[in-house]
Amino acid sequence: APGVDMQEHRIGPVLYFERPLGGKSNGGHTPMKLGVKAPANGNGAAKDDGPDGPVFKAEVGVLFGLTEGTQDRALKIKGGISF
């Protein structure tokens, strides 16, 4: 394994967005969650309090390198739909 100086380690703030797609209607409006990820339950899996059906999830943040092998700054953008 490479030394610690050549390993990639990053730290920084990231916003998490989650919005149900379709499913139960709330007067034509479904609230959007914003914040940190749900804490893990006893078996290490994330809590699943979400709606039935597809959910759009996005992550946006700025990360800073902690070692010589990592870029000084990086932008994180991740999105997807889970079923």
Task: Give a written overview of the molecule.
- The protein has 83 residues and is an all-beta fold.
- It contains no helices and five strands.
- A hairpin with a 7-residue loop joins strand 4 and strand 5.
- It is elongated and about 50 Å long.
Percentage of β-strand residues: 35-45%
What would you call the structural class?
Answer: mainly beta
Order of helices and strands: EEEEE
Q: What portion of residues is helical?
A: under 10%
- Let me know the average pLDDT: 79
Quickly count the helices.
Answer: 0
Gross morphology is elongated
Query: Low-confidence runs (pLDDT<50, min 5 residues)?
Result: none
Major beta-sheet overview = 5 strands, antiparallel
Rounded Rg: 17 Å
Number of strands: 5
Distance between the termini: 37 Å
Give the secondary structure arrangement, pairings included.
Layout: E1 10-11, E2 14-20, E3 33-35, E4 55-65, E5 73-82
Antiparallel strand pairs: 1-4, 2-3, 2-4, 4-5
Task: Give descriptors for this structure.
single chain, 83 residues, mainly beta, five-stranded antiparallel sheet, 0% helix, 40% strand, elongated
